[in-house]
Specification:
Blueprint lengths: L1 H26 E4 L3 E7 L2 E6 L2 E4 L5 E7 L3 E11 L5 E12 L2 H6 L4 H17 L4 H6 L1 H16 L4 E12 L2 H73 L2 H16 L5 E4 L1 H14 L19 E4 L2
Antiparallel strand pairs: 1-4, 2-3, 2-5, 6-7, 7-8, 9-10
């Protein structure tokens, strides 16, 4: 009998412990920092709870967990018509963040599906107001316009659209061919412009180089002529000074040697300067009439302005 009572009490204690554990599990919730619990009591929303330990009344309170971290929604390729009636396929990403967990639970059932549908219609509305060239060139502006419109629409759901990023824009094949031809023509035009500018720059540089070379050549020739003239003038000055200091008889002998060299030539007549005749006369007077150099005619009675003496 005692053993049966002990067994019964053990079973009761175990059942009480299990009931207490179930009660605690159903009552206590540990909420992470990046999550919130939206608590409902008998169907009425009590608001959000957390982070930390949250106590719920079993069988009366229910809770929905909401993640507050930023998430992204991938929107697949959507065919849109631009303002100039060009069909293009666009896919993009939407980055969202829950700012009010209560509105996210109460106001919308499936936020991801609702946001994707809203993003599709908003994208078509935005692209319909823009030409194809602007769609391809102003991607950042389109991203911002989509973000603003989506953020205005999702504000009632307690969700903030932080960013919208267009991932790919695919024009039709014929438009891609036209764009390729246009880019080829533009590259050729730029190459021709660069080639023309290079040729012009080269011509300018060549002309400037030739001008500088001409200037340098003229400067060098002028300096060379100046140096030659100065050298010739210096030589004449030295010669003139030496001639003035030389002995008159020495000069007369030099004249005599010159006359003898002339007499050896084929000329029949000589034109002799007066100074030469005077010098020869002075030498003849010094040496005497019988000691004159052979082949040299008598110079007595020579006119003062010069004389013409027939060759022997």
């Amino acid at each position: 009998m005692a053993a049966s009572l002990a067994l019964a009490s053990t079973i009761l204690l175990a059942l009480a412990g299990l009931a207490l554990a179930l009660f605690l599990v159903g009552t206590l919730r540990i909420v992470d920092e990046y999550r919130r619990l939206v608590v409902f009591r008998l169907g009425r929303c009590l608001g959000q709870r957390g982070p930390g330990v949250v106590i719920l009344v079993p069988l009366i309170d229910t809770a929905v967990s909401i993640d507050l971290r930023e998430q992204f929604i991938e929107v697949p390729h959507q065919t849109c018509i631009t303002r100039d009636n060009a069909p293009i396929d666009i896919d993009f990403l939407i980055y969202t963040k829950v700012v009010d967990a209560t509105l996210t639970v109460v106001q919308v059932r499936n936020f991801s599906g609702a946001a994707q549908g809203l993003a599709t219609t908003t994208l078509r509305a935005v692209i319909g107001d823009i030409n194809l060239d602007d769609v391809l060139a102003k991607r950042a502006e389109i991203n911002e316009r989509l973000r603003v419109r989506l953020d205005e629409a999702t504000e009632r759901w307690g969700v903030q659209v932080t960013s919208v990023e267009i991932r790919e824009i695919v024009p039709p094949a014929d438009i891609l061919g036209a764009m390729s031809r246009q880019m080829t023509a533009e590259r050729q035009r730029r190459a021709q412009v660069l080639d023309s500018e290079g040729q012009r720059s080269a011509s300018i540089l060549i002309a400037e180089g030739e001008k500088e070379a001409s200037i340098l050549r003229a400067t060098g020739e002028r300096e060379a002529a100046t140096l030659r003239a100065e050298g010739f003038a210096s030589a004449l000055g030295v010669m003139y000074g030496a001639a003035r200091e030389a002995d008159p008889n020495t000069i007369a002998v030099q004249y005599l040697e010159a006359v003898r060299a002339v007499a050896a030539g084929p000329a029949r007549k000589w034109v002799v300067p007066t100074d030469v005749v005077r010098s020869l006369a002075r030498v003849a007077g010094t040496l005497g009439p019988d000691t004159s150099a052979p082949g040299v005619p008598s110079v007595t009675g020579v006119p003062s302005a010069g004389t013409t003496t027939p060759a022997p």
